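Form 7-S
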Amino acid sequence: MAKRKIGIRSEQEWGTEQASPAGLPGENGKVKVRYEFITGEVSEIEVDQDFGDLLVDFERQEYNNNHRETRRHVSLNGMDYEGEIFASGEDTESEAESREDISRLYCAMESLSLAQRELVMKVFFEKVRVADIARAEGVTEAAVRNRLQKIYARLKKFLI
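Output:
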């Protein structure tokens, strides 16, 4: 059951409405700690001054940690500007389809051999001409085109 501490007071202060920030000791060195549970139930316990000081320190650390965490994050409520929520200009459905297509393309590329992937990289990403590739490898342009046709056929199996 979650609980929330609402006050630490010494025995002398318990009858007043003022909370003791440091849990000052009462006549016998005891401090009362009051907890309020989510159900509305209230529980009071009496602890030694040292333990009360420790509880106050823990409460302060918890507050500081919560403050530190909430300060570094932006609330989604803060994204509301002049009554309109910032929306992406992109179509979410087309973006999801595009990501799916890219994922399928990566899978298809992984099915190719290393030499085939290098050829695709040269032709489509580095924009090297087929004639230059053929000259560098010492083969005919038709041989490079045939390899590309085999690559296209293999990619079609995965993409269509």
